[in-house]
Amino acid sequence: MEKVNQHLLSALQPAWRTALCGPAGCAQYAPTQTEVRQSRVKPLPVFLVSTMWRALGFAWRRKPQWVIAGSGLTAPIAWLAARCAGGRAAVYLHGLDIIAPSRFYQWLWLPFIRRCDLAIVNSENTGTLARNRGVPLANTRVLHPGTDLPTLDAESAKDFRRQNGFGQRPLLLSVGRLTQRKGLVEFVSKSLPAIASHQSDVMLVVIGDEASDALHAREGSELERIILAAQRHGVEQNVCFLGRCDDLSLSAAYQAANVHVFPVLELPGDVEGFGMVALESAAHGLPTIAFAVGGVPDAVWDGHTGVLIEPGNYVAFAKTVIEQLALRRENKTVAACRDFAAGKAWPVFAERLRSLLDSHRA
Description:
alpha/beta, 6-stranded parallel beta sheet, 4-stranded parallel beta sheet, 16 helices
């Protein structure tokens, strides 16, 4: 979400003069021409009140044409600031913004989301969720998050394998914060044993750290649950945790891996809004095997940049991974992945965003 908001702001320049109200630390990511007001994030009520006060001040002084909320959480602030200035309000919705399991949120926040002049959603699934909660169809537009399109470097992939002692082992890659929704406990329990029995030296490389501050974080350590699942099913030697990596290491991991696995779960009140890591994987030429849940189908071109599996079918998931490993990243697959990602690159995101705002300006 932070990356999307950063690109959303930069996309507005040079077409508009911009101002930003955001959490402490956001100024270092804003364009130099942007006037910034920051508020501490915790406690949340203090952030919301402080941000609203600063946004209203901006709106009164600068009379913006658009006030854009980067998520549903700040939609009431954007709506109030826009009405104060005689402008228009837009909100970018990520999925959980619509179905957050809080009666207070549903009672107070959703009416403001419905009243926004433009609701931009990150996937078709998020759009469906929004319409089901009363967001007008006429005001809803899909705008997928974008991705960078890196230059591929075979040497960085070799270095990644060498530095981590992977050699020529087939690598399955999982990227993202360790939450229940990512489904790694179930994947390690129900799919990885079958994959390892077919290819004993396979390695699941997990990049990401604990998500203790996530909205739906359950008690205890997700990392420990994954490790325990691996031990119970005799595949602990087939799992490697690298924690959080910098961008260069992550890019090298994408290029070194054979398959990106994305076994996301369908959970009540929790949804995968888009599946940005699947798009990042495609940008590196790496195919994704994923369950077809939430907004993931918008991020995976089934049969071209990967394969979408019926949710919960771990047998089919394992079989598809085994088949994909046998292909060893064919050139035509790399090309298809890269072409798909190029159509959703950040410059495309920026152009589409500006077009949406222009078409709804009147």
